[in-house]
Structures are given as C-alpha cells and as structure tokens.
Amino acid sequence: MSMSDDVPGSVRIRTSGDNEHRYRSIMRATELYDCNRSDAVAQACNDVPAAIELIEYVLTRRDLTTKQKLEIADKANRSLRGIEIEVDTDITIKK
Length: 95
Fold this sequence. Notes:
The structure is a single chain. By secondary structure, the protein is mainly alpha-helical. The protein has one domain (17-94). It contains 3 helices and 2 strands; from the N terminus they run αααββ. The chain has helices spanning 20-33, 37-59, 66-79, and strands at 84-87, 91-94. A hairpin with a 3-residue loop joins β1 and β2. 4% of the residues are buried.
C-alpha cells in the first residue's frame, strides 16, 4: 500500500457486525492515551511501528540469552495481532 498525497477529510472505521472488536480496541487506546478516539487511533498507528523497532532492537542485543529472547518474542507474539517474531541467529519480523 502506498501513501497518497490526497488526504481525505475523514476516515471511517467500521465497528458493526464482526468488527465490534475494533471499537473495543479504540476505546482501550483512548484510555491508554487519555484522549479522544481520533487522536487515540492516530497515536496508536504511530506507536506500533516504533514498538516493533524497539522489539527488534532489544532482540538483537548480545547481552541477552537465547532463552530471554525467546521469552520476549513469545510474549510479543501473544500480544500483537498480525506480527510474528521468530528468534534464531537472525531476527525476523513478518508482517
């Protein structure tokens, strides 16, 4: 997906039917960031790539044991939807 210079005036997020989980996620973000829904969604979208970079940085540290790295990756994999982190001699993040 490419970023376009044509920014819409608004963006709609469907939360009806099978998408009710989206509303609950947005509300959790509003509580976390202590702001309105629009700002919470934007902040979360900015923070996810930064969090992935941080996880990648931590998992490449040489002072952590393989066991520690596996525990961190396992916790991240259980917490993040759509992201899979594998630990071997290289760090791989699949999106």
